[in-house]
Amino acid sequence: xxxxxxxxxxxxxxxxxxxxxxxxxxxxxxxxxxxxxxxxxxxxxxxxxxxxxxxxxxxxxxxxxxxxxxxxxxxxxxxxxxxxxxxxxxxxxxxxxxxxxxxxxxxxxxxxxxxxxxxxxxxxxxxxxxxxxxxxxxxxxxxxxxxxxxxxxxxxxxxxxxxxxxxxxxxxxxxxxxxxxxxxxxxxxxxxxxxxxxxxxxxxxxxxxxxxxxxxxxxxxxxxxxxxxxxxxxxxxxxxxxxxxxxxxxxxxxxxxxxxxxxxxxxxxxxxxxx
Length: 275
Known about the structure:
Structural class: alpha+beta
Helix content: 25-40%
Strand order of the largest sheet: 1-2-5-4-3-12
Number of helices: 3
Mean pLDDT: 77
């Protein structure tokens, strides 16, 4: 106690004088406290970092497992696709398909930059930097990486205008209807309108006994010869009885987001032989 009291009096004497900087006892105490804090802080931070690393390792492990499953699934589906492709080619040869018939579904996807967007709800269009000089033709389909966006409505030499699916209106006599089907079922329907309030597409003329159901993936069927087959439209949100009770109607959530595009893909299909 006596030593502590003497030390306290000495410290008081140092602190009563004019302050220019820290006194050596203050420096000593501060350095000592800093050292002790460092002794405890570093191990604590190492321990905390260790547990964080363990957590991250667990997440990386789980992600790695998911990727392994995805790769395995891709390898299996790729093998199945190649087998089906080879069988299809063999059958075409056996049936003596012409070269034009064999190449009917060989589509070429060419990237195009979006130059401008017209946000008019009644004329929602955009302009891309591919035109007639690049081989673009009227009614060519345009898609994003997520799903179908629209069709080419005007073609210039170096640019083209794309009319979006959000402009589909059953009252428009010049509307572009899309024959649609479910990706893995024998389904038929027509994508004929877009609801601006719900931001959903409407698929009509579905037969009453059609197996379509919620969460089915809707793609273009290729019927009609304008929209190529296999264009992703969206997924089924609900299925209801049609207006007159003879058919069914499906509400489709579009796969494309219809906003913030920088690059899209123009679908080049083989030209039909003339003559």
